[in-house]
Amino acid sequence: MKIEKVTFISPELPYFNLVTHAVFPEYGVPLIATITRDAGYDVKCYVEHIGPIDWDDVMKSDVVCFHAFSSTMPKTIDYIKKIKDVKPEMPIIIGGTHASVMWEDTLQYCDLVVRKEGDETLPEVLDTWKNDGELAKVLGISYWDHGKVRSTPDRPFTQEFETIPDLELIQGYMNWSRWKLLRKLKMRWQLLQTSRGCPYDCSFCIAPRELGRAYRLRSIDNIIEDIKYQQKLVGSKYFFIVDNHFTVNRQRTKDLLNRIIEEKIQWYGICFTRMEVARDEELLALMKKAQINTLYMGLESFDNNVLKLLNKAQTQEGLRKSLATIKSHGLRVLGSFVMGSDEDTVDSLRSTIQSAIDIDIDYVALFPLSGYPELNSPNIKINRFFLPSWDRLDGTFVMFLPKNMKPSTLQKEINRAYKKFYGPKQVMRRIIQGDIMCGLKRIAYYYWSWEIRRSTSKWIKYLESVEGKYYDENEKLIEEMLPEEGIHPAKFPGSTLAAGLERTAITMGGD
Ligand code: B12
Ligand code: SF4
Q1: From 314's CA, which of 51, 254, 333, 510 has a CA 20 to 30 Å away?
Q2: For ligand 2, which residues put their CB under 6 angstroms from it?
């Protein structure tokens, strides 16, 4: 097959989200586009919220590759249809977390799915197609083979990931002047990866499954080169470190921080970490000195029963102690909370947000419990999913039936918690405490959380219109009322049951 021109598309998210106000590609997209370019292909990359898709150009491709979030699946499906209407023979590949987990469903819409990391898999697929080789030999893919679905075994996790994503491959990336950013209320954020994997195994989290529990490191020289390249390219100071857990290997984190200090890098960094970071005060001091000022921490709850159920390996007492130590180093904490597990009640949710206020956590991000409608989904049984379409699975909308409150109640409680945390009273409190910066930022977050509240209000109405008969007068879920296949049958929008197993022969490892 002739393959020269490969196009990547990442459709825009349909609803307000964490980064609505950021110019911010998904990290894996320019990365994998660069790897493909370096493998000798003519590559273009469209990240729809950054620059418009030139469809005439897309139609000239030899292969089109989509990155899909669950929430962008409906749009992805439309786009594939648009391409196939004009060029039915165009090979379409989908990759990313959604495709990796829901691969049978995803395969209904494309020719081939790359599961998990694509660094090595995608170039191998393209080379195999180009040289008329055997796909069955490529690890980590699922594909159609004469009307049958075939899945090869998982590929071992990539050990080396030293490619610096070429951001100029993203069409329109450089067309964001300061004026345009201001007009569109956006700001540039740069992305950086220094490690992959997380050794923990929190039950709701996809990270260990997607990127493994073994911790893999990128070389410090390569990281520094990446930071300098990005700063030179766009002059932005703001960097989001996408590592699932930045401080697993403390000595190595210190080495990196020392190098950042030595190189006199002027930036503002934010990283994901856990409470164990507070055991090492030297590390905290270095983080502050290296200007990684904000720690994005999966606190999840201040209720020990919830923490236990989520397998967080942390307690509220430990969290309180760690947070005090972290704050004593002048670091900011963005606390992330997962709301609505089977141990949560309205009271536990309210007391968690009150604790966040009392402890003076600087910022919060609140997520309803989430997962994928799989047969063995860890926290949410498949028949409790509530997903009329994929677009709602974006971490903002309640898309399951909680045990101890109606879904609409959970959605309202999240909105209430945002309003309380970022409300005028808390803004004033921070300003009176002398933390003007935090106060001002909270005003911006208040606006942002208002957008989220506005975006979820229609969903609340929808939930209210359908949830009633599944709950008793105390808002306890009546599980017997749930049909085995769920309310929106498990066949839709796409579970393991959904790919129509009867229609396909699933083979692992070729024939
Ligand atoms: C870091 C991170 C963030 C950061 C930075 C995001 C960014 N722009 O890069 C922040 C905190 C800002 C964030 C925000 C959001 N995130 Co986020 N995020 C992650 C996290 C923890 C790591 C992603 C990452 O960088 N991985 C490292 C790179 C190397 O991996 P990768 O991007 O997956 O790419 C590799 C493969 O997937 C594959 N691949 C990717 N694309 C393609 C395309 C093709 C064609 C092929 C072949 C292969 C391929 O190859 C790549 C290289 O190996 C993941 C969870 C996880 N997977 O660990 C969630 C995750 C991706 N996020 C998720 C969500 C929902 C969001 C938000 C929508 C939340 C919200 N409501 O606001 C926003 C969306 C923002 C956006 N537009 O990017 C979900 C997606 C869930 C889903 N069902 O779709 C995830 C999976 C977490 C979860 N809840 O399960 N996120
Ligand atoms: S929530 Fe954080 S600590 Fe837990 S498995 Fe996921 S990345 Fe690791």
Answers
A1: 254
A2: 198, 200-202, 205, 207-208, 244-245, 274, 298
**Is 461 inside a domain boundary?**
no
Atom 27 in ligand 1: residue holding the nearest Cα: 28
Kindly report the CATH number assigned to the domain that includes residue 39: 3.40.50.280
pTM, to two decimals: 0.95
Task: Take residue 47 and report the two structure tokens written for it.
Answer: 């990240």
* Contact status, residue 260 vs residue 239, Cβ threshold 8 Å: no
Backbone angles phi, psi at 366, to 5 degrees: -115, 130
Report, as an integer, the average pLDDT of 306-316: 97
Q: Using most ligand atoms within 8 A of CB, pick from 97, 196, 209, 274 the residue to mutate for ligand 2.
A: 274
Whether residues 205 and 101 share a domain: the answer is: no
Domain that holds residue 417: 167-383+413-451
Q: Which region, left, alpha or beta, applies to residue 235 given φ > 0 means left and ψ of -120 to 50 means alpha? A: left
CATH code of 299's domain:
3.20.20.70
Tell me whether strands 216-217 and 195-196 are parallel, antiparallel or unpaired: antiparallel
Q: What is the phi/psi pair of residue 429, to 5°?
A: -55, -45
Per-residue pLDDT of 415-464, as tens digits, reads 999 999 999 999 998 899 898 888 888 888 888 889 999 999 999 999 99
Same-domain pairing of 142 and 232? no
CA torsion through residues 107, 112, 115, 117, sign:
negative
Please name which ligand lies nearest the alpha carbon of 399.
1
Residue 507 belongs to some domain of the structure: no
